[in-house]
Automatic annotation (TrEMBL):
It comes from Paenibacillus zeirhizosphaerae. It comes from the Bacteria. Homodimer. The gene is dat. This is D-alanine aminotransferase. It catalyses: D-alanine + 2-oxoglutarate = D-glutamate + pyruvate. Its cofactor is pyridoxal 5'-phosphate.
Length: 276
């Protein structure tokens, strides 16, 4: 297995993470999860744009351009073979004596690798269950930051309650989930939270928006409340690994009749065509 380490393809034993790396102390870095279908990066450009946006937001400058990085990622994906998986990439501000201030001279540290991840075929048919929790994260959720403590705590709380995802609520309104965006369908209209600092602008969400527009399904980013979530005709979450995933039960209560809805299934078919 090969790794992308500071711009070079290397074996695992060549990776050396300093004990002073700021990712380790402060979570001072950002990441991306790219999907690989049959050996090829899916929606690569959208992920790259978001990665560079996250870097700008936390004031890290890479020594490579977007197209140079793209070349490296594709070389890494080539070593993975024609399988389904993910490419995980993270960049930290680098290693420097511990101080809250940005170091004067640290070089960013980049690590990437591929991992086999199968499509969740069975769950896509059956749907998943979720619970609702308060959104206790910060006000810059549009940055794909390595700081995921609030997300991991909420995800574990969902797991402990026997659910697969936690839907997060801020001031009575639904934002997103611990590692996915969330949408509802009400009277044939898809509703989701507007982009901005309270959610991550998911790449899968962008694909769904395009699919909805192509299929003539109304798509609104006006957001929705917890009450509207509980009274929705359909609920689904979207992410790089979950794709268009139906949610069939929330807080132990069935979503409508408790089976994946028709618009969700239509979007799933459209999504499959894109990756096929
Ligand atoms: N998570 N919202 C949050 C908080 C996320 O962490 C993710 C993705 C999404 C969906 O984004 P996308 O469609 O671009 O994957 C929304 C990734 C998969 C992760 O952390 O593993």
């Amino acid at each position: 297995m090969m790794f992308l380490w500071n711009g070079r393809l290397v074996q695992e034993n060549e990776i050396q993470v300093s004990y002073l790396d700021r990712g380790y102390y402060f979570g001072d870095g950002i990441y991306e999860v790219f999907r690989i279908y049959n050996g090829r990066l899916f929606e690569e450009q959208a992920h790259l744009s978001r990665l560079f946006k996250s870097l700008r937001e936390i004031r890290i400058t890479l020594p490579w351009s977007e197209s140079e990085l793209s070349g490296m990622l594709n070389s890494l994906a080539d070593t993975f073979g024609e399988k389904d998986g993910i490419l995980y990439l993270q960049i930290t501000r680098g290693a420097a004596k511990r101080s809250h201030l940005f170091p004067a001279s640290a070089e960013p540290v980049m690590l990437g690798y591929c991992e086999e991840v199968a499509r969740p075929v069975e769950q896509l048919k059956q749907g998943i269950t979720a619970i609702t929790l308060d959104d206790e994260r910060w006000n810059k959720c549009h940055i794909k930051s390595l700081n995921l403590l609030a997300n991991t705590l909420a995800r574990q709380e969902a797991e402990d309650a026997g659910a697969q995802e936690a839907i997060l609520i801020r001031d009575g309104r639904v934002t997103e989930c611990t590692a996915s965006n969330v949408m509802i369908v009400k009277k044939g209209v898809i509703l989701t939270h507007p982009n901005g600092p309270l959610i991550l602008d998911g790449i899968t969400k962008q694909v769904v928006e395009r699919l909805a527009k192509q299929s003539g399904i109304p798509y609104r980013t006006t957001g929705f409340t917890l009450e509207e979530l509980m009274e929705a005709d359909e609920v689904f979450v979207t992410s790089t690994t979950k794709e268009v995933m139906p949610v069939t039960m929330i807080n132990g209560i069935k979503v409508c009749s408790g089976i994946p809805g028709v618009i969700t299934q239509l979007l799933q078919q459209g999504f499959e065509q894109k990756i096929g």
